[in-house]
Amino acid sequence: MKLKRHEVKQYRETLLREQDYICPLCGTEIFEGEDTLDHDHRTGHVRRVLHRACNTAEGKILSWCSRSRAEIPTDLLCNILEYWGKDYSGNPVHPHHLTEQEKLIREYRRKLRASKRSRTKQKYKDLIAGVQAEIQNE
Asked: Nearest-CA neighbor of 128 among 97, 101, 98, 95?
């Protein structure tokens, strides 16, 4: 059976009720105006109702998987999930990664540059020095 254009809205509403207004991808509530009727672009079959953003992400992910060297896109996604799930904490930290303390120093420096009053500037210099001292004591 192929839906007619005028049947799409009603079918989308029916699916939304069946889904309890929950997006099957992100698991959060779908509010009015955020919904879109997702379909498989290869077969044309309607799947579910998704958030517009989730539908866009799903399409981009599928397109990216198709361009990868994986023969089966779902294998690539399963491998990515397995890869992300492994513990790499024994490996060194990448040099571009900022620790929470380094992010705090960066924020304090930004505020220091934007400061007008000397008392405020001194406050941020002291905060920076304090965080740097913490780093050295570790």
From this structure: 101
